[in-house]
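Sat 14:20. Reprocessing the chain from the morning session after the first attempt stalled halfway. Input below, unchanged.
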Amino acid sequence: MRRRTVTAGNLEEILQVTAPAAAPEQAAAPAAAPAPREDHGLRTEFEFELPRGYVDEAGTLHRHGAMRLATARDELRPQIDLRVKENPAYLSVVLLSQVITRLGTITDVHAGIVERMYATDVAFLQDFYRRVNSEGHTRAAVTCPHCEGGFEVDLSGGRLGES
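Finished this time. Tokens:
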């Protein structure tokens, strides 16, 4: 059995070739306008605020952003990325760059941007990713170090005292 090496460049080609064929009635029908999306109450994008923030080449600080829910493709694509094969620790950089939809005024978030983030922000985003995709919310249970009272905080970036 021969193995085929897959690179990030030909992933789309392979996914198209291996995609299930369309039903005959769908193939014969003319392309219609897409049906309007229904709101099923599923939240797919979550706002966040970075602890430190990303500073771009112009010196602009970007702290607010948005992350969407990950798909199976998002989780599989980094597995065939050559950078991840060379260094498995790079997996989180590639994965985060795929699911972050906005960072301040930046809408094209790529691996190079995530690479240049401060370690505390990357750790925050990794935890945020896990919470959003595993638990479905951005709340965390915390304990006050002074009174030892327990309460919840929202990690999506609200300021203290805001509701």
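Residues 18 and 107 are 30 Å apart (CA to CA).
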